[in-house]
Amino acid sequence: MTTPHIGANKGDIADTILLPGDPLRAQWIAENYFENPVCYNTVRNMLGFTGTYRGKRISVQGTGMGVPSLSIYVTELFQEFDVQTAIRVGTCGGLAKTNLRDVIIAMAASSDSGINRRATGGLDYAPVANYDLLEAAVKSARERGVTHHVGGIATMDLFYDDSNAIEVLEGLGVLGLEMETSGLYRLAAKFDRRALTVCTVSDLIRPDGVTETTAQERETGFRNMIEIALDAAQA
Ligand code: HPA
């Protein structure tokens, strides 16, 4: 059985999955962390792999960028492949409380995307993380000595955004900006599954402009985030 976007059979995907936006990061995670990774999806080059990590079967699937793309993959994973636990691993733009390479563990995701409102008939639904995964990720970050923040992020539709939304969100203590989590958390709630987002700060959004990380810095931050997500996946 395949779905329109995932060319796999039901048993090919583990009940626990990591979700990077970039399919090549999915491949990198599988090759660097999984034992015996097998690629189960090449449709649209949105690569997905299944292997084992510390003896537990686990998958990793690229989602693309933004709530619309993520929602396609996550709906199919929950509805057709019975995925129970989904952990997004991605980059985010850091707001005032953060620095480059910090890890953000997202309790909740505000958004300017219209998708959750549309899906809830206009409600201001509050998309939240699964607490057990959140607690396991925080424990892992503490034990690994990784600089981390736990709090709200914002899932934005525009990467290039000239509006004053950033100041408003910063004024409300939002830690970072990305483009997927509000959709992931709503879908997890809808299908009664567990979800968490762990992000690494890849660029800083400051009044004087945006500072970006080097490729080397991104890899270090990226490894911390993946290892925290893999620890949480054992919970
Ligand atoms: N905005 C939205 N998403 C992002 C950003 C950003 O600045 N950086 C990485 N993902």
Q: Secondary-structure element sequence?
A: EHEEEHEEHHEHEHEEH
CATH architecture label name: 3-Layer(aba) Sandwich
N/C terminus separation = 29 Å
In the sheet with the most strands, the strands line up as: 5-8-7-6-9
Mean pLDDT: 95
Q: What is the number of independent domains?
A: 1
Major β-sheet profile: 5 strands, mixed, barrel
Number of strands: 10
CATH superfamily: Nucleoside phosphorylase domain
Low-confidence stretches: none
Judging from the principal axes of the Cα atoms, what is the shape? globular
In CATH, the topology is named: Rossmann fold
The value of Rg in angstroms is 17 Å
- Level-1 CATH class name: Alpha Beta
Number of helices: 7
- Report strand %: 25-35%
Structure description:
The chain is of the alpha/beta class and 235 residues long. It has a single domain, classed as Rossmann fold. The chain has seven helices and ten strands. It has helices spanning 23-33, 66-79, 115-119, 131-144, 165-171, 181-190, 215-233, and strands at residues 16-19, 35-41, 48-53, 56-61, 85-94, 103-111, 148-155, 176-178, 194-206, 209-212. It has a five-stranded mixed beta barrel, surrounded by four helices. Strand 7, helix 5 and strand 8 (176-178) form a beta-alpha-beta unit. Helix 2 (66-79) runs parallel beside helix 6 (181-190) and helix 4 (131-144) crosses helix 7. The longest helix is centred in the C-terminal third of the chain and has 19 residues, at 215-233. The radius of gyration is 17 Å and the shape is globular. The two termini are 29 Å apart. 49% of the residues are buried. It binds hypoxanthine. Hypoxanthine is lined by residues 91-93, 156, 159, 177-179, 202-203, 205.
